[in-house]
UniProtKB/TrEMBL annotation:
Any Pfam family: Iso_dh
Catalyzed reaction equations: D-threo-isocitrate + NADP(+) = 2-oxoglutarate + CO2 + NADPH
PROSITE patterns reported for this sequence: IDH_IMDH
Protein name per the record: Isocitrate dehydrogenase [NADP]
Binding site residues for D-threo-isocitrate: S104, N106, R110, R120, R144
Length: 424
């Protein structure tokens, strides 16, 4: 039984004891390699920052292969109950087979605990090799809706009685005539709700205001998927207008001024709003957005989008600042206080057990967790040490292959270097 105390929440504020119990899931594939390094780095930073007065009491909980081997279940109820009870957890990646087998345990955790925001900050760490000319221009925070959309996994396989029933219903009762090959189609459903959209966009605007960000961009494919992605855009603007009033200036307001007074007046109004520190709420269609984040990254700041778009955007943006080896994330319910911190990447099975991959994504997810607990001194120790370590070209294989004169180290050695450089 772990010693320590529970983190609790009162009126949306976390109460963090000096020895909080934090559940962790080691993860599949490279999970054990990166988690071992991350755990040591986080412990060293907390110890150094608070001279032993604070410490994390880790509590292992099981999911994925390790859970299956021990209990015969991929995601035991006990794991969900424990995370629910202790509020904050951190996890390694979990495998999801393609085209059959179990559904994503990562998605199940997010849905079961209603962790409606997948928050993925994307910013450049000095010295990291990147495929773009000015990686430092990319500084965005993704707010990805985390519980709905086609990502929810509501689908039926080709040739089953279930899919036939759904197709018959669509054709006979809903007047659908454009399923191109009904006999050989699988069908997926894409639920996107007003409630789910509004809580996500609300959280993104609140974050932008709190963190002094400049804009929130609603990313959607609403021209094609009018009542899901298109509605996401409309509901997003509604939240902005109805709940944030004079704290925001939206592109809908801009368009209205263009209509009534012309473009010059609209530009002036937007400039004035920016000067007053208002958040600009705008939108972009997903395909062109993927081009513009590469060509004009400075124009984007906080990004609010649906589940699948957010998944694609996360990996694309991670590439711009050096790749998935350094891409942290958090799954958060801002209303209940529940949060699970995890890297953006997956289990990278070909590297499992080789002590080779970059642990930075899960370590920086730990930094996000420490910031969330307001243990900023410990978070800063890790972030600064990461700057120094990468700055001295001590890196894992993924960065070493793109750098000249790098010293390539193993996962565990990178962890050692981070701990050593906390003293520098
Ligand atoms: N939240 C989660 O738990 C997630 C789980 N997954 C699951 O992971 C499994 C594998 O997915 P896959 O599509 O291969 O994606 P992965 O993210 O696991 O790996 C893809 C590639 O990304 C690079 N990479 C990933 N992690 C690291 C790291 N820590 N350091 C350096 N490079 C890294 C490697 O590239 P290279 O070979 O070029 O060096 C790797 O081959 C699937 O079952 C998927 O469902 C996927 C995403 C998230
Ligand atoms: O759950 C999975 O296996 C994949 C999830 C994923 O890619 C993500 O959340 O970014
Ligand atoms: Mg992904």
């Amino acid at each position: 039984m772990a010693q320590g105390e529970k983190i609790t929440v009162t009126n949306g504020e976390l109460n963090v004891p000096n020895k909080p119990i934090i559940p962790f899931i080691e993860g599949d594939g490279i999970g054990p390699d990166i988690w071992a390094a991350a755990r040591r780095v986080i412990e060293a930073a907390v110890d150094k920052a608070y001279n032993g007065e604070r410490a994390i009491e880790w509590k292992e909980v099981y999911a994925g292969q390790k859970a299956y081997d021990r209990t015969g279940e991929w995601l035991p109820k006990e794991t969900l109950d424990t995370v629910r009870e202790y509020l904050i957890a951190i996890k390694g990646p979990l495998t999801t087979p393609v085209g059959g087998g179990i559904r994503s345990l990562n998605v199940a955790l997010r849905q079961e605990l209603d962790l409606f925001t997948c928050l993925r900050p994307v910013r450049y760490v000095d010295g990291v090799p990147s495929p773009v000319k000015r990686p430092e221009d990319t500084d965005m925070v993704i707010f990805r809706e985390n519980t709905e959309d086609i990502y929810a996994g509501i689908e039926w396989q080709k040739g089953t009685p279930e899919v036939k029933k759904v197709i018959d219903f669509l054709q006979n009762e809903m007047g659908v005539h454009n399923i191109r090959f009904p006999e050989t189609s699988g069908i997926g459903i894409k639920p996107v709700s007003e409630e789910g959209t509004k809580r996500l966009v609300r959280a993104s605007i609140e974050y932008a205001l709190r963190e002094g960000r400049k804009s929130v961009t609603l990313v959607h494919k609403g021209n094609i998927m009018k009542f899901t992605e298109g509605s996401f855009k409309s509901w997003g603007y509604e939240v902005a207008h109805e709940e944030f009033g004079d704290k925001v200036f939206t592109w809908q307001q801009y368009d209205q001024i263009v209509e009534e007074q012309g473009k010059e007046a609209a530009n002036k109004a937007q400039d004035a709003a920016e000067a007053e520190g208002k958040i600009i709420v705008k939108d972009a269609i997903a395909d062109i957005f993927l081009q513009q984040i590469l060509t004009r990254p400075k124009e984007f700041d906080v990004v609010a989008t649906m589940n699948l778009n957010g998944d694609y955007i996360s990996d694309a943006l991670a590439a711009q600042v050096g790749g998935i080896g350094i891409a942290p994330g958090a799954n958060i319910n801002f209303e209940t206080g529940h949060a699970i911190f995890e890297a953006t990447h997956g289990t990278a099975p070909k590297y499992a057990g080789l002590d080779k991959v970059n642990p930075s994504s899960v370590i920086l997810s730990g930094v996000l967790m420490l910031e969330h607990l307001e243990w900023r001194e410990a978070a800063d120790l890790i972030a600064n040490s990461m700057d120094r370590t990468i700055g001295s070209k001590t890196v894992t294989y993924d960065f070493a292959r793109m750098m000249e004169d790098a010293t390539e180290v193993k996962t565990s050695e990178f962890g050692d270097a981070l701990i050593q450089n906390m003293d520098a």
